[in-house]
Amino acid sequence: SSGINAEYGGALRNLCDIAATEQLLQYSEICKQLQFVMTHHYNDAEVLQNSCRLLSRMSLFTDMCNVISHNDDLLNILLKIIDNYTNDGPLLVRCCFVLGNVTGQHPHASLHLHQNGSILDSLLSLCKVYKTKLAEKMTKDKQQVVKDVLCKTVRLITNVLQLEKPATAIQPQLIKMYVSLGQLAAQNKIYEIVLNVLCGLNNMSYYNGEGSIFTKHRGMLTDFVVRLLSIDHTGITIEALGVLGNLSHYKDVVEKLIEDEHVLGITTTLLDSDNSDLVYKSCGVLINITKHKEFHDKLPSTIIGQ
User: Fold this and answer.
1) Spatial distance between the Cα atoms of 262 and 299, rounded to a whole number of angstroms
2) pTM to 2 decimals?
3) DSSP string covering 116-168, please?
4) For residue 139, which of 6, 24, 27, 34 sits 20 to 30 Å off, Cα-Cα?
């Protein structure tokens, strides 16, 4: 029954808090038991919630996370939850948190979800639903759940996009969703979402060369990323410069950047930063710009000199 399974899940969650039980949980085939419970009680949201709570705890342990990553049937159930429990925010947060931890450490899990579950399509649909909810009026608690779902969903997408096959299989809808969601998150100062959006764009830009769907949208992407440079957030600036570094191989992108004194001012100033990542990323953008000699007369002499 639901009550029994809830008690079962609660007891196991408590065990997860005791470090000494990590080995016990791993070798007692808890994943297989959870898979059985979740499969046979798939229509019981309470059972799924308790199971995902336990998996959340387990995924924080390196060895346990590895066990989860190799249980394809369990990964499929988690993806099925994303597809079928769209309106259950708390359950989706747990589910995406588990998959985020697993895909962040184990690329083979991302590849399985991409090849066997069309995970990017599922997550894109989920983003559309919760992006709409983010603009609605609701209580602070409900709004926090919406933000948490989006944060965990975008993080999961970004993890999957670390692999070449998913990153090169992206569709225009995903790129446009990332941009629109990033803009909305920036307006609402939800910087965790903005940061994950930029990380995802970095992954896309790394694998997608000339002629790809990604680079065909480089004008829109450049405009979006440049606006984010005005946010006072080191992580966002680093990731934004990373995307611009990959996009500035193209002459039309360089033309956009040259026209924006704000971009040149920021990248030049950051060359003196104490943060080595900021210096490195700024150098990358400026080097790409200076490769085009026809624009040298529009650049500050300090850049050409360096």
Assistant:
1) 12
2) 0.87
3) HH-HHHHHHHHHHHHHHHHTS---HHHHHHHHHHHHHHHHHHHHHTTSHHHHT
4) 6
Q: From CA 277, how far away is CA 241, in angstroms rounded?
A: 10
> Over the stretch 224-236, which tens digit does the pLDDT of each residue have?
999 999 999 999 9
Length of the chain counted residue by residue: 306
DSSP 250: S
Tokens for 303, please give them.
Answer: 């850049």
Q: Mapping DSSP to helix (H, G, I), strand (E, B) and coil, where does residue 290 land? A: helix
- Which of 209 and 167 is assigned the larger pLDDT? 167
Alpha carbon distance 290, 279 (integer Å): 16
Tell me what the pLDDT averaged over the chain comes to: 86
pLDDT at 54: 84
Residue 25 pLDDT greater than 60, yes or no: no
Close Cβ partners of 92 (under 8 Å, ≥ 6 residues apart): 81, 82, 85, 86, 126, 149, 152, 153
d(CA 22, CA 17): 9
Cα distance between residue 120 and residue 210, in whole Å: 22
